């Protein structure tokens, strides 16, 4: 739980009492490689924090998987458009490795906001980060060529790129695996 507490401390200070509350509200869970944390059509009922492991977000578009995001150790996982209004998700979130997470339910998150000294501030700052990141990613999908998206991928995920299968990287960039190979060769020249 220490990595979770460290992450929260990057946003707000925590007292010993706050840490006890957090320990009571979060639950540890292990997800096996290739299992889903969330499937399309399910309601996302938890916000998750990755202690160890790696996940990808993808949608099905005409039967084809389109990967559009990755999360790793020290990052939060959630489908907020499903979680907040409690509606069915259009997302799939899958573990790419055996993954250890800390989860908190919607109701427990509301308790976190009320009982942790700076809980509401943490929530605001964390969701501002998510919002900014999503807008940048959407903008890139519409304005950047695949080669630029691959460069941005390598900058954002340099520390985990070797842990992600190439066909998921190609999907994230928006190209077929063969095209990704050509992009990578051009960048090495």
Write the layout of secondary structure elements.
Elements: H1 2-9, H2 16-25, E1 27-31, E2 36-38, E3 46-52, E4 54-61, E5 64-72, E6 76-77, H3 80-83, E7 92-95, E8 99-105, H4 106-115, H5 119-143, H6 146-157, H7 166-173, H8 177-188
Antiparallel strand pairs: 1-8, 2-7, 3-6, 3-8, 4-5, 4-7
Helix pairs in contact: 2-4, 4-5, 6-7
What is the C-level CATH assignment of the domain at 2-109? Mainly Beta
Q: Give the helix/strand class.
A: alpha+beta
Based on CA inertia axes, which overall geometry fits? Answer: elongated
Treating each run of at least 4 consecutive H or I residues as one helix, how many helices? 8
Cα separation of the termini = 44 Å
CATH third-tier fold name of the domain at 2-109? Jelly Rolls
Q: Kindly report the name of the CATH homologous superfamily of the domain at 2-109.
A: Jelly Rolls
Quote the average pLDDT: 93
Largest sheet: 4 strands, antiparallel
Strand order of the largest sheet: 1-8-3-6
Strand portion = 15-25%
Poorly predicted ranges = none
> What is the string of helix and strand elements?
HHEEEEEEHEEHHHHH
* CATH architecture level-2 label of the domain at 2-109: Sandwich
Number of strands: 8
| Helical coverage, percent range | 40-55%
Gyration radius, rounded: 18 Å
